């Protein structure tokens, strides 16, 4: 049987397409300017343009097009950039696993976490990990879930710790793994001198005159609190404060009439000091859950040990 000669596209994938081409397209999809890509790779702008031209000649199709001052990917470029990101991520994961194998339990873990888990459960989990694997290099990032979830999906974070279930679509199920680490309820806290402090029972209507310290917009907890406000005809009240960090909450709440949401593990320390009080109202059963999310193909020994350490930290806080 005669074998048909390879097409130009087949030849491009067999011998012409380079990792450098994929890196450039992935970077261009992210920053949108050839000049910015050149800065990222520490080369000249003509060098990047030459690589793009070489790629287009290999494929016989354009991969970029001008849109004003920016460069946009064509459908061909978008396909290559999407699959290229996966190829580059897999290569990076392989490199890091080989480093783990060569150096023992080492390498790097990039951890993202929401504000209500970072200073307590994540900090304690990392401390436990450090006792077991001191050679692991750790990077921590605090943000809301709308920022963190895309980063773990794109491979820029190794794991995210949050209180939110990941939305399940078919493509994400193939890529991501999720685990319940334990429970750390969110509680409604106020100053120990607040008029509602010490009450054995409360109704939501009792909070109608209260001003709140609110979680940041874009967080799942903010959305849940807004739904609760709507259900019970509440509002944030005059003088409300929005805070992205729970470390500022004890000071804000201790001074006056404000109420706010805090993780129970974090609030208990201030309750013991009689600085804060926890009001007898339940927030949300879903918000009790602390979850980890990571890419399935990057479950390294260091990551598994981190997950174990985080689960122990949640358990140690009485969750």
From TrEMBL:
Keyword presence, DNA repair: no
GO CC aspect terms: cytosol
Entry's Gene Ontology molecular function annotations: DNA binding; DNA-binding transcription factor activity
Family as reported in the entry's similarity comment: Belongs to the LysR transcriptional regulatory family.
PANTHER family for this protein: HTH-TYPE TRANSCRIPTIONAL REGULATOR YBHD (PTHR30419), NITROGEN ASSIMILATION TRANSCRIPTIONAL ACTIVATOR-RELATED (PTHR30419:SF8)
Domain HTH lysR-type: 17-74
Alphabetized Pfam families for the sequence: HTH_1, LysR_substrate
SUPFAM superfamilies with a match to the protein in the record: Periplasmic binding protein-like II, Winged helix' DNA-binding domain
Protein name as catalogued: HTH lysR-type domain-containing protein
Keywords of the record: DNA-binding, Transcription, Transcription regulation
Coiled coil region boundaries: none
Highest taxon in the source lineage: Bacteria
